[in-house]
Specification:
Layout (H helix, E strand, L loop, with lengths): L2 E5 L2 E3 L5 E8 L8 E6 L6 E6 L6 E3 L7 E6 L4 E6 L8 E7 L14 E2 L3 E5 L2
Parallel strand pairs: 2-11
Antiparallel strand pairs: 1-3, 3-8, 4-5, 4-9, 5-6, 7-8, 9-10, 9-11
Length: 124
């Protein structure tokens, strides 16, 4: 059974940092393109970052480029999102998700599995 479980969210002041984790089970993350998305209250789902199957390349939205870093620990079958220089506009529910076909990228709205999310709130 495929499962994705996010953790690490919380309340942080502007300029602060958080590290999100996404523990995967039921499949091997290194065989799939994986990505992070987020959704703020009243707003549409927004793509944040993606990682390719060998973990050598990561991609970021313009809004987080230079501040967020996505990584993967294949031994732990876990993804991470290191978030620095956080801004109030980063406040959202963050999800990790999987592209449906092994080895192939996908649009962020076409992932086949997504976790329950972890809340990130940036506020003073």
């Amino acid at each position: 059974q495929v499962q994705l479980v996010e953790s690490g969210g919380g309340l942080v002041q502007p300029g602060g940092s958080l590290r999100l984790s996404c523990a995967a089970s039921g499949f091997t993350v290194r065989n799939y393109w994986m990505f992070w998305v987020r959704q703020a209250p009243g707003k549409a789902l927004e793509w944040v970052s993606s990682i390719n199957i060998d973990g050598g390349r990561t991609y970021y939205s313009d809004s987080v480029q230079g501040r967020f870093t996505m990584s993967r620990d294949s031994a732990k079958n876990t993804l991470y999102l290191e978030m620095n220089s956080l801004k109030s506009e980063d406040t959202a529910l963050y999800y990790c998700a999987r592209c449906p076909r092994p080895g192939l990228p996908c649009s962020y709205d076409l992932g086949d599995y997504r976790g329950q999310g972890t809340q990130v709130t940036v506020s003073s």
